[in-house]
Amino acid sequence: MKTAIVTDSTAYIPKELRESLNIHMIPLSVILGGESYREEIDITAGEFYEEVTNQDKLPTTSQPPVGEFVELFEKLSRDYDAVISVHLSSGISGTYQGAVQAGEMVDGIKVYPYDSEISCMIQGFYALEGAKLAREGKGAEEIVRLLDEMKETVQAYFMVDDLAHLQRGGRLSQAQAIIGSLLQVKPLLHFVDKVIVPFEKIRTRKKALKRVEGLLEDAVKDGGSYQASIIHANREEEAIEWMKELAEKYPNVEFNVSYFGPVIGTHLGEGSMGMGWAKRLAE
């Protein structure tokens, strides 16, 4: 069985890496200044953060039309028997459900929609691992089983500078946003049951990042092989410096730096920073 791997743009996997592993991408869109832009195609993260400062209104986002999924799946059906379609958490977007609907509409290929229950490069881990397994000739059902196995080890925490973005976008309750603003805290957030919820309230950015490092340390102390991604919203230098510090302390973890692109950045706001990790699948 030949299996294709699809993900959406919120995985923020670099184009060169997607192409080298033959990962297909469906873009979400950001609506900025009355114009709609497909992220990773029409607008880069850098362009987004530069442009958003010139806007009076906050941007909005939209999921891919079901028809785009149908078109891609039909195209893949010419060369593949199955497709695993990995998407951002169904608790914050209807993108996964779009893949489900499209899968039911397409003949000639078995579609396995996969809810990463998270987003950004941590979502990307599933697509990357899936692509490597597909190259090894593993079947779709075995790949899904192995991704579920990896999911048991996935953790991610992120800090936002301003809770207003999450509250306005409906990704965090108004009460939680007000509490955070009144206390002037840097709340750590994470995904629980597919939605974003507070993890801890911490007073400063420095302490928040230190707390995330402590959580990483606890997770990787078994000495296993891990991958981790430091994710930033227009704070690349800070992210690179943090990665260098962590790489020296945790030799069993392979780090990379990624970013909150336009769609996720719309909801988190500039200055956000986070890290996620997963244990590598046994060779």
CATH topology of the largest domain: Hypothetical Protein Tm841, Chain: A,domain 3
The largest sheet is:
6 strands, mixed
* Strand residue content: 25-35%
Could you estimate the helical fraction of the residues in percent? 40-55%
Helix count?
A: 11
Name the shape in a single word. Answer: globular
Measure the end-to-end span: 21 Å
- Structural category: alpha/beta
Strand order of the largest sheet: 10-9-8-13-11-12
- Give the ordered list of helices and strands: EHEEEHEHEHEHHEHHEEHEHEHE
Q: Any idea of the CATH class of the largest domain?
A: Alpha Beta
Q: In CATH terms, what is the architecture of the largest domain?
A: 2-Layer Sandwich
| Quaternary assembly | single chain
Secondary structure: number of strands: 13
Catalogue the unreliable spans: none
Mean pLDDT: 91
Q: Give Rg in angstroms.
A: 18 Å
Provide the domain count: 2
